[in-house]
Design goal:
Elements lengths: L1 E5 L9 H15 L3 E8 L3 E5 L2 E7 L2 E3 L2 E3 L1 H12 L3 E6 L2 H9 L4 E6 L7 H17 L2 E4 L2 H5 L11 E3 L7 H4 L7 H6 L7 E5 L8 H10 L6 E5 L5 H10 L6 E5 L17 H8 L2 E4 L10 H8 L4 E5 L5 H4 L6 E5 L3 H13 L1 H18 L2 H12 L1
Parallel strand pairs: 1-2, 1-7, 2-4, 7-8, 8-9, 9-10, 11-12, 11-14, 12-13, 14-15, 15-16
Antiparallel strand pairs: 3-4, 5-6
Length: about 375
């Protein structure tokens, strides 16, 4: 069997869609599937990464986050002719064009997020999206809520399959040390005495709400650790100063994603998993349905770390963490309730232990990588 993945970027570029693409591609190779990835890059390049053939097409132009490249269409067409199945990682409008040029090919559309359907842009791209979904044999979504809230997918329930994103068991397979005192000392932390946020520092991630709620909690020995960088960083630092939180809020900058871990990972590369496993809980305060899944919550569950997350209308992230099962939830923007949830997590030991145990169990039952990828391989046939 030969499968061609049509994506935007690929490793070493790091992102949620790229992680999913790489995981599926490498697992497919292990199972004997000849796998090729077509993506964009700074130059034309053919490489092999962990058995996966990667074809990069040079693109110096973007239109509304969509890279443009004539070479992508030409190489994609030629490669598609020699492959049995096309796996399209959406949104990617050039990949949609390729699908419509080859309607007889078996096509799987992996719906990673909603395609913009408003205004002039929506008017122009909507026919392309709908026709691609008509041609597709199967459509993969990560949660049922993602399907129900999509203005496109409501017409294609009969061919839509729910396959949550899975992760390998970093805690066991890669022997991550959960009692790494050196990591805690590096950031002046104590085990189970801090809340952790991991993500890009952009507005929709909700860090403004998180810091504001944190400033109101009564447990003054608790710290907040923020892992990530982005355009909102200065505003968040100003907010910390405004609330006189001082050393209680720690900004670590970017740390290596868990998806880059291997058995040979260095101490620096293991900082993030150590921070997750030693945290009291993970905060996931996103405020917009642009957050369609929330893979950091699954990373947290791997290490039995409970989650405090928002209920976002129309977002599958509200399903990933279950209230009073793997963590706690609160309405978007309700800072008082968020503050109460943080205090509850630190004050109720019995609740905390139950959430911690259930978080790990939820990972094992739903979010293991072999569960997700094996289902996808069956769709190729």
């Amino acid at each position: 069997m030969k499968v061609l993945h049509l994506g935007k970027y690929y490793s070493p570029f790091s992102g949620g869609i790229e992680f999913v693409n790489q995981q599926i591609a490498e697992y497919s190779v292990e199972k004997g599937v000849e796998t090729t990835v077509l993506c964009f890059g700074h130059k034309n390049e053919n490489t092999v990464i962990n058995g996966v053939s990667v074809i990069r097409c040079k693109s110096n132009v973007k239109l509304l986050s969509q890279p443009l490249s004539l070479g992508y269409l030409i190489k994609g067409f030629m490669e598609a002719l020699r492959h049995d199945t096309l796996h399209v990682h959406s949104p990617n409008f050039l990949a949609f064009i390729l699908v419509l040029l080859l309607p007889w090919k078996r096509t799987i559309v992996h719906w990673h997020g909603e395609v913009y359907d408003k205004g002039l842009i929506g008017f122009l791209v909507s026919p392309l999206v709908y026709l691609t979904l008509v041609v597709a044999n199967k459509i993969i979504v990560t949660t049922r809520l993602q399907q129900l809230s999509s203005s496109y997918l409501r017409y294609f329930k009969y061919k839509t399959v729910v396959i949550p994103i899975g992760l390998i068991d970093y805690a066991r397979e890669l022997h991550v040390d959960s009692s790494n005192d050196a990591v805690l000392a590096k950031f002046s932390l104590k085990k189970s005495e801090y809340i952790l946020f991991v993500g890009r520092l952009v507005h929709f991630k909700g860090c403004t709400d998180l810091i504001t709620a944190f400033s109101e909690i009564k447990c003054k020995n608790v710290k907040l650790v923020i892992v990530g960088e982005g355009p909102e960083e200065k505003n968040l630092l100003d907010l910390v100063e405004k609330f006189s939180l001082g050393s209680r809020v720690v900004f670590t900058g970017n740390l290596n994603s868990l998806t880059k871990l291997s058995e040979n990972s260095t101490y620096k590369e293991r900082l993030l998993p150590s921070l997750i496993s030693n945290a009291k809980c993970l905060a996931f305060p996103s405020i917009h349905k642009a957050e369609s899944f929330g893979i950091t919550m699954v990373e947290s569950m791997v290490f039995s770390t409970p989650i405090i997350s928002t209920i976002i209308p129309g977002s599958g992230s509200s399903w990933v963490n279950r209230n009073m099962v793997s963590g706690l939830q609160y309405p978007v923007g309700d800072i008082d309730i968020l503050s109460d949830k943080i205090e509850l997590m630190f004050s109720d030991d019995l609740l905390y232990k139950r959430l911690s145990k259930n978080a790990r169990r939820r990972y094992e039952n739903i979010f293991r990588s072999e569960l997700a990828v094996s289902k996808i391989l069956r769709l190729y046939k």
